């Protein structure tokens, strides 16, 4: 069936062009890890089919069972082909449970990360002023510049998730989820190097509905407020 797909159908289903697919296959065939040596008398799955299965899995939301049925292979073969935070955990909770939470101040070394309003404010993690309809001009200007810088990475994530919809709902254990995300990033970057445009896969970016998670105040939360206010004043001065 796949050879009968038009070029547009191929792109829509596999989230890359047919030429990019061919180029990627030629590269993967040189990888010893993907050699198609048969085991147990079972016919080995060629690289092209492994890649079809992986791209189908990443690009959609079909279950392992349905993908196995579609490609005429076992469910275990689908799992092997795709392995190269289950559920919908709040972004801020993921941060709270990561090593960055305890080491952010040291790792940033006087600098800071930029995050949206869903995250807590810290000296090393600057978030926008919460819009309570009483922001002054200085605070509004800070929010505007903060958003302008943050939109670059938001767009990058939007492009990645637009190409691979599976990233919205990864139904696997954490170790496998990490591998899938890395694979998605590698494939996405390969497509970009091939100038394989994926604007039509873009999802709308909306972080305004991310409710902040409540944390117990820590010592540098006040320091975060002081630092943000100082930067806001400096930016306002530069604007003048």
Structure description:
By secondary structure, the protein is mostly helical. Helices cover 55% and strands 2% of the residues. The chain has helices at residues 7-14, 18-28, 47-59, 64-71, 75-82, 91-96, 99-108, 137-163, 174-193, 219-239, and strands spanning 113-114, 125-126. It has a two-stranded parallel ribbon with strand order 1-2. The longest helix has 27 residues, at 137-163. It is elongated. The model is unreliable at 204-210 (pLDDT under 50).
How large, in whole angstroms, is the Cα Rg? 22 Å
Give the N-to-C terminal Cα separation: 63 Å
Please indicate the percent range of residues in DSSP E strands (runs of 2 or more): under 5%
Q: Into which percent range does the helicity of residues fall?
A: 55-70%
* Helix/strand structural class: mainly alpha
Largest sheet: 2 strands, parallel
Low-confidence stretches: 204-210
Tally of separate helices: 10
Elements, N to C (H/E)? HHHHHHHEEHHH
Which geometry do the CA atoms define? elongated
């Amino acid at each position: 069936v796949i050879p009968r797909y038009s070029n547009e159908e191929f792109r829509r289903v596999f989230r890359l062009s047919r030429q990019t697919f061919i180029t990627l296959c030629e590269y993967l065939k040189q990888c010893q890890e993907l050699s198609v040596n048969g085991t147990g008398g079972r016919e080995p799955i060629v690289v092209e089919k492994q890649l079809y299965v992986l791209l189908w899995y990443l690009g959609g939301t079909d279950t392992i069972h349905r993908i196995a049925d579609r490609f005429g292979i076992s469910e275990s073969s689908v799992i092997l082909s795709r392995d190269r935070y289950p559920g919908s955990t709040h972004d801020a909770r993921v941060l709270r449970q990561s090593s960055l939470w305890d080491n952010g101040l040291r790792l940033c070394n006087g600098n800071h990360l930029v995050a949206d309003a869903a995250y807590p404010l810290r000296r090393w993690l600057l978030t926008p002023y919460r819009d309570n309809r009483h922001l002054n001009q200085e605070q509004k200007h800070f929010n505007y510049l903060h958003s302008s810088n943050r939109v670059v990475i938001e767009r990058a994530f939007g492009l990645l998730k637009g190409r691979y919809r599976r990233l919205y709902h990864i139904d696997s254990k954490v170790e496998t989820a990490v591998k899938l995300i890395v694979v998605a990033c590698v494939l996405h970057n390969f497509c970009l190097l091939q100038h394989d445009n994926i604007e039509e896969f873009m999802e709308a970016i909306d972080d305004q509905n991310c409710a902040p998670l409540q944390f117990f105040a820590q010592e540098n939360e006040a320091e975060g407020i002081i630092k943000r206010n100082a930067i806001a004043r400096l930016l306002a001065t530069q604007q003048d």
